Each structure stands twice: as C-alpha cells, then as structure tokens.
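Re: that chain you flagged

S.,

Sorry for the slow reply, it's been a week of failed gels. I finally had a moment to sit down with the sequence you sent. For the record, here it is as I used it:
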Amino acid sequence: MRLRIAAFFLVPLLALAAAPAPAPGAAPGPGGPAAELSTVDAAILGVIEGVTEFLPISSTGHLIVATRFLGLESEVPLKDAAGQPLWHKPPSPKHPEGIPLTLKLAADTYNVVLQFGAIAAVALLYWTPLWSMARGLFGLDPAGRRLLVHVMIAFLPAAVVGFLAHDWIDRHLFSVGAVIVAQVAGAGLMFYAEAWRRRRLAAAPAAATDAPMTAKSALLIGGLQCVAMWPGTSRSMMTIVGGYFAGLNPRRAAEFSFLLGFVTLSAASCYKALKSGGAVIQVFGWSHALLGGAVAAVTAAVCVRFLVHWLTRHGLAVFAWYRLALAAVLGVVFYL
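Prediction finished late last night. Pasting the structure tokens below so you have them in one place:
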C-alpha cells in the first residue's frame, strides 16, 4: 500500500519534471512558458516548501522571502511571443480592465501549488490513519470515523475564514514586514506554550502525559489554525500549540497537525490551483512546476520524521529561537 501511494504521487511528477525546459531567452511557443524559472530556482523553492511546511517556522513566510531574493516579484504585465498581453482574468463586466498576468502572481500561485508535494509526503508516511479515516467515512472503522470527525471539526474554521478572507490576505499581508511580525509573535507564543506544557507535566505527570481528543479540543486547534493565515505565523506551529493546550503530548499534537494539514493543504491547494493554477503553467510551464512539487515531497517526508523525533525529546524552543534569529536577519537585510 505504501509503495502504491508513493508511486501514485511521485512517479508522474518525476517523469513530467524530466521533460525538456525551454532554452533561456527563447520566445515562448503556443502554450509554452512566458517567463523563465530555472531548474535551480524550482528546486530551491521545492526544498524550502518541503523543509518549512511542517516545521513550526512558516513555509509561506520563507517562500515570500525566497521569491523576493530570486527576483520573482515583478508586477509588469506579461506578453506572449506575438506581443499580445497575457491575462489572468480577461476584461469582463466584473473586471472591465482585466487582471494582467504577472510574474509575481504566477510565483505566488506556484508557492501554494508546491504544497501538493507536502501533501504527498503525509499521504506516504501516514497512509494507515488516512486509510482508517476513509474506512470510517463508510462506517467500516469506528476509530477512523472518530478521527475523521475531529479532523473535519478542526478544518471547518479555517475553511470558512479562508474562503471569506483569502483575497484580502493576498492583497495586504504577503510582505516581508508581515512575515517579520508573525515570526516574532509566533516565537513568543511557542516559548509560552512550551513552558506551560512543562509546568503542567511537572505538576501532574500522569494526567499531563496525554489527553483524549474531543470535539472541543479539535475546535480549539482549528480556531488557532485560522491565525496561521497571517503569512509567517505557521500553520504547523499554531496547530501543534493548539494540541499542547488541548492536553496532547508532543507526538500526538504533531501527528494530528499533519493529518489536519493533509486536509487543509489539499483544500487550499486545489482552490488556488483551480482559481489561478493556469497562471503557473502559462508563465513557467509544466516541467519546473512538477519538479518543485517532487522536491517538496521528498524533503517534507524527511522533515516530518525529524519533527516528531525532535518534539518528543526537546520540544518547541529551538524553533522559537530560529524564528527570532530569522526575524532579526530579515529586519537588517530589508529595513536597515
């Protein structure tokens, strides 16, 4: 089963990623790339997504910064080989002037679509509980049904808030400054949560070892996940901290975060792909988009295993210190 899941997600990605890319500077043919994304850039973004998606340090924040460093922020309208404008949304009664296709729009969408790689990693590593949830959906696995109900309760707040606030967040919060603020605030929350967990464990070791997941616990975790829509906060961090406050031990908090992430990232990536995914293919072409996803899958799988191992032994503090260091570096580089 595990090998079939891996093949399902990764073999098509790797095969298509090997397709030849257009030569640098070549004019795009019909349906071909309108701008160059190098193989190195695609791999860098894939590694960043894979490493940061499940570590509590914010994949979105890192990708915003990486996009800026790689020079993928141009908002100059793109044109095809014949000099005609490329449209993200052509002129219409709703958009009389249309929304031109830009490098930045395509790069921002590319960074979201990369999450399919992280989704593949969770599907590979946690296929047993996912299969149990699927069986529970049809009444064949009571434990899987309970887990599915809890995951869906935790998912719903972000689904509602994300649907309503998606466009506003894209317009106002995708900036380095917003990432710095979120990195610092998140570090403070992680220090507090880790100290709270250790005090609770010291006061009542038996009671604090772990607690059963309830609908109330799932709703708490789901509510905190909404905060992670601020770029730089980290969905993983907020859901793991929520698991702490719900009484879960670090391993269970992380693993519930991964399963919730599977559902949340699947929904967000599909929504973004349906809404703007054509921009990625039109601007960058298929091969590099698929390469980035494959790289993200491999690196995310490694980091998921690392995070469970680390949290069980050491907790969240090291990631909080990393966030503070990153915020300081970004402040110096971009604002001093």
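What I noticed first: Residues 2-31 have pLDDT under 50 and may be disordered.

Talk soon,
D.
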